[in-house]
Structure formats: structure tokens, C-alpha cells
Specification:
With 246 residues, the protein is of the alpha/beta class. The chain has one domain: Rossmann fold (3-Layer(aba) Sandwich), CATH 3.40.50. Helix content is 35%, strand content 18%. The longest helix is centred in the first third of the chain and has 27 residues. The chain is globular, with a radius of gyration of 18 Å.
Length: 246
């Protein structure tokens, strides 16, 4: 496995870069004409800086929700409107509050992702935009691991240090990502991971009028083939970006 790990790490890095680029492109497009946004899983507010690199955007129109009290305190000390709250529960905002809501690498960490998406629909303004970036459970890579009797990792950090050390699990995330394997409150663990078809269908079921999906990273094919393959088969790509308009 050690021989293929650098190959898949390279694929993963390109996949995440391209997926985030598209997601932020859609976010800035939704905010070009004004309005406010809600950053779900806001960390300490780094998304605002990236938005401001593309369009003029007033800090006062940016709100965020973050689970970690420490990150919220850091963000608030820097003047960001980021509150501590649980995205599995009712969002503490009025109906039709935001022009754009986004959750990037967040949905897969929630116990109640379906309720979260309903809350996004409720708190979006009419014609508002939801942007989600999340992994896809229905990938050829996952299928191959299962056929081989392997256990797909539940997140960017494999679930067990012992399994990782014995090469039973494959870590493809960047090396500098701080591990929290086997901690009491792992922040990188994936709980519920949607497939492309199911997520597309569910967003329509809860009332979004226009839903578009994009796939990134059709493994194990090399990077030079990815742009073409992602358009042909987004259904089995490693990462998904969904843009849903209310």
C-alpha cells in the first residue's frame, strides 16, 4: 500500500483543490448582487477572506456557525460574526435570512444532515443559493476496497492508528492535517456520507427548484484524465459540489 499512497495523495490534493475552487466560484457568483451569507462550519472565518479576494463583500454581511467554542472565541476576537451552535439542530435564524448558505466539507460530519438541509432551505431567501461540498460514498475506490475485503476510511484520518500503521487503511489527506484519531470527540470523522444520486434527489424533494451537481476525482484514473472523466461520470467521483437554488 505504501507504493500507491503517494499516487492517491496526489489525486486527492488535486480533487480537493478543484472542488473548493468551484464551490467558492458559485458562492461569489451568488453574492455578486449583494445580500448576506451564512458559513456553516465556519471555523475561524477564513472563507470570508477568500470571498473578498473575488468580490467586494462587506464583513457585516457575513455570518457563521461553528461547533468549536475555541474557534468561535478566536473568530469573535477578530470581529467575525460567528456563533457557536449545533448544525444538527434548528438554525438560530429567521426564515428567508440569507442570499447564500454554504457548507464545505461539513455535511458528512453531521448526525442529522437531512434536517440541516431542510433548515438551509428555510433560512434561505427566495432565489437564494445553497452550496454544499461533501464526499461521495458511491465511488469506484470504495467499491474496490470493499471487494478486496478492506474497510473504507470514515474520513480524512483513518479511524485507527493501529490499522493505519499496519497498512490496513489508507490515509490520503495532507500530511500536516492534525490527526485526532481515536480521540473522544474526533472532528474529522465522517458519520453519514451521501451518494451523488441520493443527494441530488433529496435536495429536490425538500423544495429546491434548481439543483446542479458536479463531481471531482474519479479514482483511480490519473489526474490528466480527470477533467474529462468528471464530466462523463460525476456519479462515482470522490467529492461532490451541489448548487441548489430556492
Amino acid at each position: 500500500m505504501s507504493m500507491i499512497q503517494p499516487y492517491f495523495q496526489n489525486l486527492y490534493q488535486r480533487t480537493m483543490r478543484e472542488a473548493y475552487d468551484l464551490a467558492f466560484s458559485e458562492i461569489t457568483e451568488a453574492l455578486k448582487t449583494g445580500g448576506s451569507c451564512l458559513d456553516c462550519g465556519a471555523n475561524s472565518g477564513s472563507s470570508l477572506k477568500r470571498i473578498q479576494q473575488s468580490i467586494p463583500f462587506d464583513k457585516a454581511n457575513y455570518s457563521g456557525v461553528e461547533w468549536s467554542p475555541e474557534l468561535c472565541e478566536r473568530a469573535q476576537a477578530n470581529g467575525y460574526n460567528i456563533i457557536q451552535a449545533d448544525l444538527n439542530k434548528v438554525l438560530p435564524f429567521e426564515n428567508d435570512s440569507f442570499q447564500c448558505i454554504f457548507g464545505l466539507s461539513v455535511l458528512e460530519h453531521l448526525l442529522n444532515g437531512c434536517a440541516f438541509m431542510k433548515e438551509c432551505h428555510r433560512t434561505l431567501a427566495q432565489d437564494g443559493t445553497l452550496v454544499l461540498l461533501t464526499p461521495n460514498i458511491s465511488t469506484f475506490f470504495t467499491i474496490a476496497l470493499l471487494i478486496a475485503g478492506k474497510m473504507p476510511s470514515s474520513g480524512p484520518h483513518p479511524d485507527s492508528n493501529a490499522l493505519l500503521a499496519n497498512e490496513e487503511l489508507l490515509k490520503v489527506s495532507r500530511l500536516e492535517l492534525t490527526p485526532d484519531t481515536e480521540s473522544e470527540t474526533p472532528s474529522h470523522c465522517h458519520l453519514v456520507v451521501f451518494s451523488y444520486r441520493v443527494l441530488h434527489r433529496y435536495l429536490k424533494m425538500i423544495g429546491f427548484a434548481d439543483v446542479k451537481g458536479y463531481g471531482f476525482g474519479l479514482y483511480p484514473f490519473p489526474n490528466f484524465m480527470q477533467p474529462m472523466l468528471e464530466k462523463i461520470d460525476p456519479y462515482h467521483c470522490h467529492q461532490m459540489v451541489f448548487v441548489a437554488r430556492k
